[in-house]
Amino acid sequence: MIITLRPIALAAALSLVVSPATAQQNGPGAGNSKQFDTVTRQISTLSAMGSQTMGDAVIALAVARKQTVTVAIVDAGGNLLYFRRMDGTGTGTIPAAIGKAKSALALEAPTQTFSDMASRNLGLALGFLSSDFTILGGGQPIRINGMVVGGIAVSGGAGGEDDLYNNAGLAAIGATLAD
User: What is the pTM (predicted TM-score) of this model?
Assistant: First the structure.
């Protein structure tokens, strides 16, 4: 059996095939961008290259100061983008740095703030800890153009100098330093 399509039937059949452009036009919220805006959102996040630039600045400062540190940098979703533990840095700094970076991101504030608050309020300290937030100083949110795009943390710096290293990483990408 041979099937022949007449021009009108062919045009009708082809109209059923949806091109990507048509799918976008007819997708969620088509014709109603206000509705679409309430269903989705766009976020800015730190790139892998940005995290590498930050991490390199932290490590360069540590080498210049003849110290060893662990650095953790997370993106806006709390996903680890950069991690490095320098030779000679204790293994306990691994979970500390990652936890500080994630906590600074989630609460959009330096972790030293949590440490200060928790030292005055045991209930608050327990609340932070039970929510998987760290109360160790040394984590900073990463702000670009007023938006938090990630978190950075250093662990292992001598005498509570972790934020000195964080600030070097933040400055390397022009991020706003937290108060």
Answer: 0.76
Q: Domain locations in the chain?
A: 7-39, 48-172
SS (H, E, C) the chain: CCCCCCHHHHHHHHHCCCCHHHHHHCCCCCCCHHHHHHHCCCCCCCCHHHHHHHHHHHHHHHHHCCCCCEEEEEECCCCEEEEEECCCCCCCHHHHHHHHHHHHHHHCCCHHHHHHHHHHCHHHHHHHHHCCCCCCCCEEEEEECCEEEEEEEEECCHHHCHHHHHHHHHHHCCCECCC
Q: Look at the domain 48-172 and name its fold.
A: Beta-Lactamase (3.30.450)
Question: How confident is the model at residue 154, as a pLDDT?
Answer: 97
pLDDT tens per residue across span 61-101: 999 999 999 999 999 999 999 999 999 999 999 999 999 99
